[in-house]
Amino acid sequence: DAGVIQSPRHEVTEMGQEVTLRCKPISGHDYLFWYRQTMMRGLELLIYFNNNVPIDDSGMPEDRFSAKMPNASFSTLKIQPSEPRDSAVYFCASSFDSTPGLGEQYFGPGTRLTVT
Amino acid sequence: LAKTTQPISMDSYEGQEVNITCSHNNIATNDYITWYQQFPSQGPRFIIQGYKTKVTNEVASLFIPADRKSSTLSLPRVSLSDTAVYYCLVGDIVRAAGNKLTFGGGTRVLVKP
User: Fold this and answer.
1) Do B104 and A58 touch (CB under 8 A)?
2) How does pLDDT run across B94-105, given as a tens digit for each residue?
3) Chain segment A43-66, per-residue pLDDT in tens
4) What is the 3-state secondary structure (H, E, C) of A33-49?
5) Is there a contact between B101 and A58 (Cβ–Cβ < 8 Å)?
């Protein structure tokens, strides 16, 4: 398996523009997570899905952020409109449903977003 | 999710054993202890997870005392490539909902030649 795939790897956009980040989880994984990492706040969970259903979005910073998982092999994280403070590295991760605790999550390479 | 406290940084030398202790005084009954490793410009990578006593895999050992209020990740005979940030997480995915799972600052381990 190729692992978790994220695209694009780098995104530079201007404030006010819409940004869409994409993720393909590992085949057969039931959980999908979106994280954001910054120097100030560390690595934070934004939202996670179980069997394509959003379970918890309490980490989503505000209404400008939205995430979807239309099927088991694809998810998007959208920011509209984007702001400079959204600049960060966004990671997608997936894991098996049967794993106890917080599970063995497999992370993608991340998308480095810069909003100017 | 239980709040965790771990050292900000540690230095070591090649071939030595590195032990990183994480405190989690308010760990809940269903919580597991999970450790991740992160290299610069990469996503975190799972190292090991345990519930009690000792867990060992091919890269590390995890020691958990009976009260489970702390845990120690042990990296045997480290090499330069083990230089990374190590995160301790405590929780359970079912109860993670609404608890703003955050990896925190982690422990920056620097392995010197």
Assistant:
1) no
2) 666 555 566 767
3) 888 999 999 999 888 889 889 999
4) EEEEEECCCEEEEEEEE
5) no
